[in-house]
Amino acid sequence: MVNPVLLIAVPLGLAFAIPLFALFWKNAAKYIPPVALGFNLVVSLLLLPKVLENPLIVSIGGWQPPFCINLVAGPIGVFFSAIIALVGLLVSIYALDYIREGSTEKYHMLYLLLLTGATGVVLTGDIFNLFVFFEILCISSYSLVAYLGEKASIESAVKYLIQGAVGSSLLLIGIGLLYGLFGTLNMADIAEKIDSASPISLFVPMVLLITGLGVEAAIFPLNAWLPDAHSSAPSSISAILSGIAIEVGLYAVARIIFTIFGASNILLFLALLGILALLIGELCAFSQDNIKRMLAYSSIGQLGLILFALGIATSYGVTGGLFQLVSHTLSKSVLFLAAGYIIYQTGSSKISALEGMGKKMPLTCLAFTIGAFSIVGLPPFVGFPSKFLIVRAALATKETYFIVLIGLALLCTVIEGAYFFRVVQVLYFKGGESHSESKEAPFTALIPMLIFVVLIVVVGVYPKLITGVLNSAASELLNRLDYIRNVLG
Amino acid sequence: MMSFLADYIYYIGAFGLILVGLYIILVKHNLIKVIIGLGILDTGVNLFLISVGYITKGTAPIFSRAEIESEQMVDPVPQALVLTAIVIGIAVLALALSLAIRLYQHYGTLNLRKIREQRW
């Protein structure tokens, strides 16, 4: 039996060992993140079948819950840690060659810390522990956004940092209020006692927690930092921020709403916010001429769609939301990775500068195209079953407002299609007969992109591969009584 | 009135600091002032956490000293939280200040209203 603590301890220890290794051999720094994340992937996949039957509760320090800090390795936690490790592993392979400038060992250390924080957030069962892991994630992403040290990246890192720090403070106030009310920090224990408090006294901590986490989860209107930060970070970091960081924030919001508060009255509001974010994100993305900014706005839209699906709060809806989360992670990561090398070759991130790149970098552009088609939701890519599930869930509620909102969401998909197809058209069908020889991305970049593409197609053709896990993950989120019973025994 | 003040003085102080910090962050244009605002906000949050677990005239919970009654011990959990929160706050402030230095090198100003290259 593998202990889930290793999922956090090993990458954390290795992250701090990176500067030491780099003292002796500078190149060691870039090989450590793939090793650590490969280890995490193997451990998560080993744990997954076991936790599907029975969630693993790990108490740290020899005390029993609720007195200890505990990890809850349920289906959702282990599945997310597997996704984080998988995407992290592929992106760290991509970064082997992509990250050349600056003090690379610091990049690799912060990168591993970011993913450790993300893994910790999805595994922890203690709300203050969640805050600490969240801060690890946030602080490392602030500094990674600023990694290039250019004008734009410093400016967006400053914006991101100020908004993120205010959000974390609000989160901490909310945690303090909850501790004052219930005298415990264990999420299951709070969830058990939550009914004993008056709804009025719960409202303030809930708003503070959702707002605080919402900054990182980029819930509209708290997402002003996102387009700047995602577009001016190095492309590998944009992929992680778009594919992992905001998803983890959204997971935390879902955990707070579903498990801790069991609040059903706020869900419609969140669904509405989600659709608003979808509309605004897609409209802004449509008017961008910078490819990375376009992708970043598209992330805002996709996150809105996920929030909408979680807001439906039926078993179908949450499964669809989690599926959309996975599909966004896979597709947006490959889009950013491909865009990274396309920008590297053209030297410009303007969409008009990409003319004819489809002939010069056929494989990279193919990966980009498949990612784009998957985000739009064309079959047979992974975006199709996930969007389909969300539409089915919304229709199955038979509530007028959900049906109106999903209609709006489908309209947004059309806009999405319009701007993604425009880019694909520029890649392949514009530009004269430039006979310059092909300048394909290096193998360390092509292999991760290829694996992403294979995953997108395989899961898209055969969604049953993950729907079983997603179903149990959704029921873990929705059945708070089971969660409480599992943790407190 | 006075007894209300005496009972809740720490909470009033904590939320006063939080509001001052938020006001500075929202209103001030100078990045250094905004960072000072973040510091004040952090202090307010920490004071709030401490006052959640505080008992009037309480002392530290040291079990090996028999003369301390258990009713006089303050709750140690919030203090542990605050220790962690202080460390995190320091890290964020240090990062913010180092970014401020770089921002000044690039733009020659710390006025956030003048630094607007990226917009929606």
Describe the protein.
- The complex is a heterodimer of chains A (489) and B (120).
- Chain A is mostly helical.
- Chain A has one domain (5-488).
- Helix content of chain A is 78%, strand content 2%.
- Chain A is built from 20 helices and two strands.
- Chain A has helices at 5-24, 28-53, 75-98, 104-123, 127-145, 151-182, 187-193, 199-217, 226-232, 235-261, 267-286, 291-312, 315-346, 357-360, 362-376, 383-396, 400-429, 443-461, 464-478, 480-488; strands at residues 56-60, 69-73.
- In chain A, strands 1-2 form a two-stranded antiparallel sheet.
- In chain A, a hairpin with an 8-residue loop joins strand 1 (56-60) and strand 2.
- Chain A starts with a helix and ends with a helix.
- The model of chain A has no long low-confidence stretch (mean pLDDT 88).
- With 120 residues, chain B is mainly alpha-helical.
- Chain B has one domain (2-60, 68-107): Helix Hairpins (Orthogonal Bundle), CATH 1.10.287.
- Chain B is built from three helices and no strands.
- Chain B is elongated, with a radius of gyration of 20 Å.
- The mean pLDDT of chain B is 86.
- Chain A binds chain B through residues 128, 132, 135, 139, 142-143, 146, 149-152, 154-158, 161-162, 165-166, 168-169, 172-173, 175-176, 179-180, 183, 185, 224, 227-228, 231-232, 284, and chain B through 18, 21-22, 25, 31, 34, 38, 41-42, 45, 48-49, 52-53, 75, 77-78, 81, 84-85, 88, 91-92, 95-96, 99-100, 102-103, 106-107, 112, 115, 117-118, 120.
Sum up the structure in keywords.
heterodimer, A: 489 residues, mainly alpha, two-stranded antiparallel sheet, 78% helix, globular, B: 120 residues, Helix Hairpins, 3 helices, 0% strand
Estimated share of beta-strand residues of chain B: under 5%
Q: Structural class, from helix and strand content of chain A?
A: mainly alpha
Main beta sheet of chain B: strand number and arrangement? Answer: none
Main CATH class of chain B: Mainly Alpha
Our measurement of the CA-to-CA distance between the termini of chain B, rounded to an integer number of angstroms, reads 50 Å
Helical residues, percent of chain A: over 70%
Structural class of chain B: mainly alpha
User: How would you sum up the major sheet of chain A?
Assistant: 2 strands, antiparallel
- Work out the strand percent of chain A: under 5%
CATH architectural designation of chain B: Orthogonal Bundle
The main sheet of chain A orders its strands as 1-2
